[in-house]
Amino acid sequence: MKKSLSALSVLITACIYIPSAYADIYSCVDDKGQTAFADSKNKIAYKNCKLIMRDDSSPVATSGISNNGTKTATPINFPRIDKKTQSQRDDKRKDILQTELDTEKKALADVQKSYDQDSKNAVFMRANNIKEPAKIAQFDDNLKRQQDEINTHQQNIKLLQKELNSIQ
Predict the structure, then answer these.
(1) How many C-alpha atoms does 34 have within 13 Å on its Cβ side?
(2) Where is the composition biased (Polar residues) (predicted)?
(3) Helix, strand, coil percentages for the chain (3-state, nearest 5)
(4) Residue 71 lies in a domain
(5) 58 domain-assigned
(6) Is the whole-model pTM more than 0.70?
(7) CB–CB of 123/143 below 8 Å?
């Protein structure tokens, strides 16, 4: 209880003396059953969090529709970007994504080539050097690592293509 009160007093003091630090504050219960205070980023580490202080000055991520079903107004001082600037940003983003995609494809081709060669060597070793199981195990480990790299590059390529398709 004393720990909770001291934490609460620290929280109140921080709210008074640091007006530039904005965040929603939650009262939560940790795994040991003790009360803890967390911001919106850290509240997921706790259970039974209840909002005790709302920061109305920071932007809140919403769908643009308030609870009563009406669309929320954009603040007057919200930054506006002209179409030319946005188009330039989109083009730059596309170029960056395309460069990343090309890099991933090259890396995939390199790993695939190495994997194919090592697969042939492993088959040869299994057929001719059965007396050296340590080397065969080493080849198998290397092949598994390469297969994991191939899967990672394929997944990255898939995600980059999806992202590129979404902005075209």
Answers:
(1) 12
(2) 60-75
(3) 60, 10, 30
(4) no
(5) no
(6) no
(7) no
Model confidence at 149: pLDDT above 90 = yes
Distance, CA of 33 to CA of 7 (rounded, Å):
15
78-125 tens-digit pLDDT? 888 899 999 999 999 999 999 999 999 999 999 999 999 988 887 777
Q: Residue 53 to residues 39, 47, 133, 151: CA-CA distances in angstroms?
A: 10, 17, 64, 46
Q: For residue 108, what are the domain limits? A: 83-167
The DSSP output letter for 130 is T
Is residue 91 located within the same domain as residue 163?
yes
Structure token pair of residue 96: 């960056």
Distance between CA 87 and CA 60 in Å, rounded?
A: 26
Q: Residue 154 and residue 141: Cα distance in Å, rounded?
A: 20
CA–CA gap between residue 143 and residue 8 (Å, rounded): 56
Do 154 and 108 contact (CB within 8 A), yes or no?
yes
Return all residues near 130 (Cβ < 8 A) that are at least 6 apart: 136
As a whole number of angstroms, the distance between CA 71 and CA 86 comes to 24
Q: Render pLDDT for 24-60 as a digit per residue (tens, 0 to 9).
A: 787 787 777 777 777 777 766 767 777 777 766 544 4
Query: What's the farthest any 2 CA atoms get from each other in the chain?
Result: 78
Q: What is the Cα–Cα distance from 84 to 82, expressed in whole angstroms? A: 6
